[in-house]
Design a protein that fits this description.
- It is a single chain.
- With 165 residues, the protein is an alpha/beta fold.
- The chain has one domain: Rossmann fold, CATH 3.40.50.2020.
- It is 23% helix and 39% strand.
- The chain has four helices and eleven strands.
- A seven-stranded mixed sheet has the order 5-6-4-3-7-8-11, with helices on both faces. It has a two-stranded antiparallel sheet with strand order 1-2.
- A hairpin with a 7-residue loop joins strand 1 and strand 2.
- It starts with 7 loop residues before the first strand and ends with a strand.
- Homodimer.
- InterPro entries: Ade_phspho_trans, PRibTrfase_dom, PRTase-like, UPRTase/APRTase.
């Protein structure tokens, strides 16, 4: 399936010089969304996975759909202050400052899911957060990997993705 044809390029958003990869058209296509849920993690033995952890906000959509498809739980990785206590928090650097994400503590094996991997800062923070909160990270996956911006791996494997730029 040609997923790139369902991802809209939005030039100069959110600021000049950036090309935003809008996955809204893909999400509106039930066949494409199902394809993503069934094919993004072909390399992972999901029998050992308890949860799909989605990074706010578009990662929520993908992870929740994948969790339902594979009959697993869903964990929200949220911006700080959005979840009731208790939570664990991790701060990380952004191009223009810092950010903080949080997750309820717990146990189990997770796959972390997000929409786009750019520099890897948010995804690495999510990995660190899951480990801090008591979870074991089985794999990480993104719909779109901007490979020209990163060479990120996890456990000596490339981050799973279905679309690369």
């Amino acid at each position: 399936m040609d997923l790139k044809s369902l991802i809209r390029d939005v030039p100069d958003f959110p600021k000049p010089g950036i090309i935003f990869r809008d996955m809204s058209p893909l999400l509106q296509n039930a066949e494409a969304l199902s394809f993503v849920s069934h094919n993004l993690l072909k390399h992972v033995d999901l029998t050992h996975v308890d949860y799909f952890a989605g990074i706010e906000s578009r990662g929520f959509i993908l992870a929740a759909h994948m969790a339902a498809t594979h009959k697993k739980g869903f964990l929200p990785i949220r911006k700080a202050g959005k979840l009731p206590p208790p939570t664990r928090k991790v701060s990380y650097a952004l191009e223009y400052g810092t950010a903080e994400i949080e997750l309820p503590p717990g146990r189990g094996n997770v796959v972390i899911v997000d929409d786009v991997l750019a520099t890897g800062g948010t995804l690495q923070a999510a990995i660190d957060l899951c480990l801090l909160a008591g979870y074991s990270v089985e794999s990480v996956a993104v719909l779109v990997n901007l490979t020209f911006l990163n060479k990120m791996t996890y456990n000596d494997q490339k981050v799973a993705s279905l679309v690369q730029y």
